[in-house]
Design goal:
about 70 residues; mainly beta; about 35% strand; elongated
Length: about 70
């Protein structure tokens, strides 16, 4: 278990590690082989910390880098 920062309520929430809801764990948002576009939620890792209210944080990033999915 880790934690993410909820910017709207300014509170810290518990989070669990799961696959990225945007790129479905692939780390890329496009299927084109020539393009190298990383997912903005997971930064290309395919895994994020996800809270119950939808706040996400890439694994290895600071708690202040949390984003709402």
């Amino acid at each position: 278990m880790s934690k993410v920062y909820n910017k709207s309520s300014e509170k810290i929430e518990k989070a669990r590690k799961s696959e990225c809801p945007r790129c479905k764990g692939f780390g890329s948002t496009t299927a084109d082989w020539g393009k190298d576009e990383k997912c903005h939620l997971c930064c290309g890792a395919g895994v994020v910390w996800l809270s119950g209210l939808g706040w996400t944080r890439p694994v290895g990033k600071r708690m202040e880098d949390s984003k709402l999915y």
